[in-house]
Amino acid sequence: MLRTIKALTSQTCEGSTERLLQLCFGYFASYIATGMLVKYFTMGAPGMNEVEYLVYSTFGGSLVCLVVVIWLKWYKLQSARRVKILGMDLPYEVLYIVPSGVCTAVVIPTTTMMYLLPISVMVAMTIMRATIIIISRIVDEIQIRQGILHKKVYWEENVAVVFALMAASMQMVFVKPGDFDFVRNFAAMAILSSYILAYGIRIYIMNYYKNTRPKGVKQDNKGFFAIEQFSAAATMALVCLALYYFVSAGDSKGPIALYQAAFNEPDVFWRWAVLAGTAYGIGAFFSVFLFMFQGRTATFAGLVNRLTSLVAGTGATLLTCFLLKIGKAPKTADWVGLIFIFVAVYFLARAEKRRSQELIATHELEPCAPKA
């Protein structure tokens, strides 16, 4: 335990297990904050509706991402070659990182919109978590067959996938009649399909970038993140303007009317909601860097990302229930799912040990020099 804490609080090497633990810890903490703040603003004292909170918190999350990447100049992506685009000399990778950002702009709002439609929240969470795990495994298989990924997926990773899916699906024991009626709702299916398709394309692009770095060219995750955020922010801004100026509000209680009202009649707590959204923005850094973690398969990285969020979700539920007195405590299925998560983590730890040794043997990862 002491060694783990020391690893989390010390400087670490790129691609090392210690760096992986640091990213997990950061994602875990930011995810708990995000989960608690969502429930506080929508179910607690502020009483903000979900659409209002989506608008304000998304702005805060995007803003913190943009401020950081501009302030630290992460946008100077290290590239193997340059191309001319509209008279500008840009990294070649921009051609596919920009589409990844467009997909990000789809993922961010649809994640919340799924909770606003006639669909069981429990079913929505199961679908969102399970699909990312499955997509990550499919991406590995595709890129292995394409000759892009030259690593094999360890059997430990495949076993971890099974237990992770079991953990994500535990809520299905509480399925009630009508929980799956959303399949006959066009809006619900359109949003769900958009979420799955956008996330699938994005994970493929992330791993395409990671697995096609020429020898001697750094895997610049910060540069990737910066360009992706610029693209996502621009896409969301255009869509927001279109929804505000060119789409009829219709039903006064409908999502579009509530969206437009968030600007026309801002909630008194809107500034605090924007500030709360920075937790989501901070979590985006850790999330992306986990998905793109150096030398690991999409299966492994996707599992680490989703399992961290699953544990954090349980933690957020507990803290919200006992500290904020909002919502209900985790059910039996949540605790059983947590056991499956820890089993999956055990197999992931075995896979990580093997992968680290492999990367060191192939000189893709250099052992960290002892600290003075």
List keywords for this structure.
two-stranded antiparallel ribbon, 68% helix, single chain, 372 residues, 2 strands, mainly alpha
Taken from the alpha-carbon principal axes, the silhouette is globular
What's the overall average pLDDT, rounded? 88
- Main sheet attributes: strand count, strand direction, barrel closure: 2 strands, antiparallel
Widest beta sheet: strand line-up: 1-2
Query: What gap, in angstroms, lies between the N and C termini?
Result: 22 Å
Helix content: 55-70%
Query: So what's the oligomer here?
Result: single chain
- Count of DSSP helices? 12
Number of domains: 1
Task: Give the tally of β-strands.
Answer: 2
Element-level helix/strand string: HHHEEHHHHHHHHH
Derived structural class: mainly alpha
Strand content: under 5%
pLDDT < 50 runs, ≥5 residues: none
Radius of gyration: 21 Å
